[in-house]
Specification:
Length: about 220
């Protein structure tokens, strides 16, 4: 009988070890970027919000994507808008001065926080205004015009990326929780599959939809 008792005691002693973490949770996070024309962004967002099926333990957030914040991502139309803005300002100044506006003498792009000590080109400070050259912020162009009477008019033109060329797409942020990491990944994969299916309905190639950020936790 002693061996049987010892075996029983061993089984009881091991039971709590197997149940040490009964409520452990795994979490998976994923960001998807869909690049598409600006005119289709709102319709695509609406389709995602209405057509992506709900998954248990899963949250999905759909937002405009403004790009990665490099000037290379700013659409050319933003610069055209900045030049138009500069010309409107220069014309108003020329009229007040009683002279005509002539040709452009120089154009300079400004980025970062510019002030009287940091701005370059003909002493044109931005008075401390933070101007960033990115897809989510204005483009600032310093433009110098010659006037009919032989003088110069120097102005800043601003192009708003939010109104010209941005957003550049849609970001879908997926967060899934489950008892196991595999199950959490399956829930994220189900949402990702739905997003890609909707993107194909909008004529987007697979290369236009990418996973930008992926992470997981166990706790």
């Amino acid at each position: 009988m002693l061996p049987v008792i010892a075996l029983s005691l061993f089984a009881v002693a091991c039971a709590p070890q197997a149940q040490q973490y009964p409520n452990r949770i795994a979490s998976v996070r994923e960001d998807m970027i869909s690049r598409l024309p600006q005119k289709d962004v709102q319709r695509f967002m609406n389709a995602l919000r209405s057509d992506v099926p709900e998954q248990p333990g899963c949250s999905v957030n759909v937002n405009e994507w403004q790009g990665y914040g490099r000037s290379a991502n700013v659409d050319a139309s933003v610069y055209e808008a900045a030049l138009d803005d500069a010309r409107r300002k220069a014309l108003a100044i020329a009229r007040r001065m009683g002279t005509g506006l002539g040709s452009v003498q120089s154009v300079s792009e400004f980025s970062g926080a510019a002030d009287a000590s940091g701005a370059q080109g003909r002493g044109m400070p931005l008075k401390g205004a933070p101007v960033m050259t990115s897809a989510g912020q204005p483009v600032a162009l310093g433009v110098v015009y010659r006037t009919s009477n032989g003088g110069d008019i120097a102005v800043f033109g601003l192009g708003d990326a939010a109104a010209h060329g941005a957003p550049q797409g849609v970001q879908v942020s997926i967060n899934a929780s489950a008892p196991t990491l595999d199950e959490a990944r399956k829930r994220v994969a189900a949402v990702e599959s739905s997003v890609r299916a909707i993107a194909r309905k909008f004529g987007l190639p697979d290369t236009a939809v990418t996973v930008d950020n992926l992470g997981f936790d166990r706790y």
